[in-house]
């Protein structure tokens, strides 16, 4: 049975209400079966896709220590490069970006064990998620996790079609690697700021699976 994110029930119900309304209009005003049936099928497929999109998969979290960092989201490694993080860490870091398309799981998961030491939501624009300036200009949330091996900051970044970010971050709260930490609706991106000396385990172009793909090992 597919598990659906509870924060998305309202969105799903709204979509199905629209689907049913449009279905009624199609049945009421379309008499040609060759037109009516394909339209009803398309509406049904759309409603099912939106429901499936908000799924929360069950994943096997690999063994590791306090410095093991796993992927926050499913997607594709967009970039790995040194970058200055000026919001909270105030230092040069290794930036790893994961881009999520429409068909990726959009539920997000804590990347390592530790305690939330910082959280802030930033309203903003809705540039394409892979745009270089999306990390700064787009709507996003920033969360920092502190462990005995150091701190990690990750951003949930909205894209052109992503209009809502859900995050369960609460300052001072302990978190467990592999547990769900939120969801971003539709195409979006995750930026992870790691210490410069972190051992990166992925490369640009790799596909990631949330909870399962090891992104880095903190020293």
List keywords for this structure.
219 residues, alpha+beta, Glucose Permease (Domain IIA), 2 domains, 8-stranded antiparallel β-sheet, 3-stranded antiparallel β-sheet
Brief write-up:
The protein has 219 residues and is of the alpha+beta class. The chain is 21% helix and 36% strand. Helix 1 runs antiparallel to helix 2 (33-53).
Radius of gyration: 19 Å
**Secondary-structure element order, as H and E?**
HHEEEEEHEEEEEEEEE
Helix content: 10-25%
- Assess the beta-strand content as a share of residues: 35-45%
Instruction: Give the number of DSSP strands.
Output: 14
Major β-sheet, in short?
8 strands, antiparallel
Gap between N and C termini? 39 Å
The overall pLDDT average reads 87
Query: Poorly predicted ranges (pLDDT <50, ≥5 residues)?
Result: none
- The CATH class name of the largest domain reads Mainly Beta
Widest beta sheet: strand line-up: 9-5-6-7-11-3-2-13
* CATH architecture label name of the largest domain: Distorted Sandwich
Tell me the number of structural domains.
2
Secondary structural class:
alpha+beta
CATH-derived topology of the largest domain: Glucose Permease (Domain IIA)
Q: What coarse outline follows from CA principal-axis ratios?
A: elongated
- Tally of individual helices: 3
């Amino acid at each position: 049975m597919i598990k659906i994110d509870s924060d998305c029930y309202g969105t799903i119900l709204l979509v199905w209400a629209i689907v049913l309304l449009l279905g009624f209009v199609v049945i009421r005003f379309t008499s040609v079966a060759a037109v009516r049936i394909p339209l009803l099928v398309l509406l049904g497929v759309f409603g099912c896709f939106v429901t499936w999109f908000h799924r929360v998969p069950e994943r096997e979290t690999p063994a590791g220590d306090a410095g093991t960092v796993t992927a926050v989201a499913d997607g594709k490694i967009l970039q790995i490069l040194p970058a200055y993080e000026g919001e909270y860490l105030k230092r040069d870091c290794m930036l790893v970006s994961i881009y999520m398309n429409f068909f990726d799981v959009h539920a997000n998961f804590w990347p390592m064990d530790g305690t939330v030491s910082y959280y802030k939501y930033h309203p903003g624009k809705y540039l394409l998620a892979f745009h270089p300036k999306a990390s700064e200009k787009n709507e996003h949330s920033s969360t920092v996790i502190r462990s005995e091996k150091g701190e990690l900051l990750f951003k949930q970044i909205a894209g052109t079609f992503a209009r809502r970010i859900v995050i369960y971050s609460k300052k001072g709260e302990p978190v467990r690697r592999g547990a769900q930490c939120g969801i971003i609706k539709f195409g979006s991106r995750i930026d992870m700021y790691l210490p410069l000396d972190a051992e990166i385990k992925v490369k640009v172009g790799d596909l990631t699976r949330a909870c399962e793909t090891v992104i880095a090992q903190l020293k």
